[in-house]
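Pipeline run #58 for the internal structure catalog. This entry was flagged by the ingest filter as a single-chain record with no existing model, so it goes straight to prediction. Upstream metadata was stripped on purpose; only the residue string is passed forward. Reviewer on rotation: M.T. Logging verbosity set to normal.
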Amino acid sequence: MATFIGQLIGFAVIVLIIMKYVVPPVRKLMVERRAAVGAELEESAKAAQRVVDADLFRAQRLEEGRLEASHIIDEAAVDSVRIGEQMRIQGGVEAERIKVQGDQQLLLLRTQLIRELRGELGAQALSRAAEIVTEYAADPLGQSATVDRFLDELESMAAARPAPQARSTDLRPASRDAQAAVVTHFDALGAQFSVAELSQLSDELAAVYTLLLREPTLARYLTETGGSADAKKALLEQLLASKVSPGTLEILGNAVAARWSTTTDFVNCVEYVARLSLLERAEREQQTDEVAEQLFRFGRMLEEQPQLTSLLSDYREPASGRVDLLRSVLNAKSSANPTTLALLAQTVELLHGERVDEAVQNLARLAVGRRGEIVAEVSAAAELSDAQLQRLTEILARIYHHPVSVNLIVGPRLLGGLSVTVGDEVIEGTLSSRLAAAAMKLPN
């Protein structure tokens, strides 16, 4: 019993100890735990509410997304129809542009191909024609036939051509009348001169020409419109009476008494009469044809030797040196007529503002014109027969209504036919020119 009571007291003590020392902390811990669980439950409830709210928000957003997607799909459908229509229209336009461009390109290629084919065919035909013409022209009879055909064409031209109007000159009316008066006076006075006097007249007029070029003030005074003719003649006598012959002084006095458009025309007229004096000398000696022929021959020499032309035209060199060169060339090439040599030497010595080949060409025309003829420069592939030359001269005389002097130039490269140059007019009828004209018409 005592044991039971002791155990009971012990148990009670244990219980008391537990109640005092164990239960309060446990109870406190349980309260705290309960509060924590409550807080957690409350937080869980809030979290659950947030989940519910999130589910609602998600559902709303999903609904909005579905609506937006539906709207986008509708817009995309409309845009696809619109874009498809635009692409169809643009594709049609682009297809039409490509088609037009293709047609143009095809047409261009076709035109280019046709041009190339025509060019090649034309070149081959022209080459073959040139061979045939060359073979034909190699035969003297064939070459002569080409000249005859040209003469036939020229004769038909002569029948249809009206009489030409009088040719104008570079001189103005006043100077032209003045020069005509001076030349008329020279013709009347020169008829009384001997050959030696004509040579002296030419030399003296050439010296006066040089003086007038060197003294332009004197030349201007002698051509002043308001000046007295007697005063001008008195000045000439004072300056030149002891240096030139009376005939020269008379011709110059007649020239200064005339009315000139420019001083240059008067000065050039002095040179012109100087040349006429030598041509009159050739006529007295019955050498006019020979002089004209030699002048033309020397002109052709200058054309063939441009270096000689440059040397004779070089104003930087003294005139005496160029005249010596001229004499050496003429003596080496042929025996020139003394009048021809004098004319050419005077031309080179008085050369002023022009090339020697131009001056010689003008001199040759003057020599022929002095005989009352005009010059026709005729180019041929070979020498003409006497009959052809005579026929050509007669036809040209009918065309130009004036006697014609033919200056024949032979050039084998012409192949056949003729080319006639009278002044500024060219009548082209050579086979080489016709082949060249045909080549120019070929497509590039």
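catalog note: Strands lie at 374-380, 404-410, 417-422, 425-430.
catalog note: The longest strand covers residues 374-380.
status: ready for reviewer M.T.
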